[in-house]
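Q: Hi! First time doing this. I have a protein sequence and I read that you can turn it into a structure. Is that right? Here it is:
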Amino acid sequence: MKIVNGLIDIHSHILPGFDDGPEDIEQSIEAARRYKDIGVDCVVATPHRIGGTRWSPSPSAVIAAAEKTEAALNDAGVSLRILPGMEIAYPENGDEDFLSTQFLSLGHSGYFLIEFPFTSAITDIIRNVTSRAPGKKKPGIIAAHPERCSLFQDDGATLRQAVAGGMLAQVNIDSLFGGFGAKAAQAAFDFLRQGLVHFLATDSHARGNRMPPDPKQWERLIGLLGREAVETACMINPGRMLRGEKVAPIILPDETIRNMQPPGHHGNIMERLINIFNK
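A: Yes, that's right. Below is the predicted 3D structure, encoded as structure tokens:
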């Protein structure tokens, strides 16, 4: 496997003791070693931030934990940069001004990672976070794993409208492998085909089956989308985002779009035979 260093994971639950991520620093270290094995040098720690629950860390607590975790990783011989952030659950009563000093943007970039409701209506929510009154600066919004949200899944026009309005989209790598079910996988592939995805991220929880990809899984991802697309989604675009720059969607070559299929899809047998002969 050809290792390309400099990869950045913008969505990771790597801070111990915050949410349903690692229970202790040893699990964080194990995840960090897996990151290094595939060329990731920087991780944005995004503990859940759900208002009114015990998962409501303050920005100062996350910043301190990111610094402490990075130091512990270095002491363990795993050099991995840890930047502070949050995966912010959109509140039911949220409006265009709900992002305030109680929330952290990713790496202090001005881009906020938002987890939208999985099942409830989100049309008005999208309008709120992608619109701004004249003279007001629009916050940078990144939708966390929209392929897992039923209303994005069932109505692709919703995500298209949101992206057209300036929102960015982050798809989970494991969704492409079927880790969140066939419907999420199909939606992830559809969004990629339509040029609606800006980032791929692990959404690792540093335990069980929610670990960062291993080298074999990473090669599978590259085989699926191509090295250039993976580097754009996991290095170039995250770098631009962290610098507060404009980020463009991932555009896949026509051949890649034709050939990629979600897990379990066998396609038309005649089409498959034609593809074999063409190769």
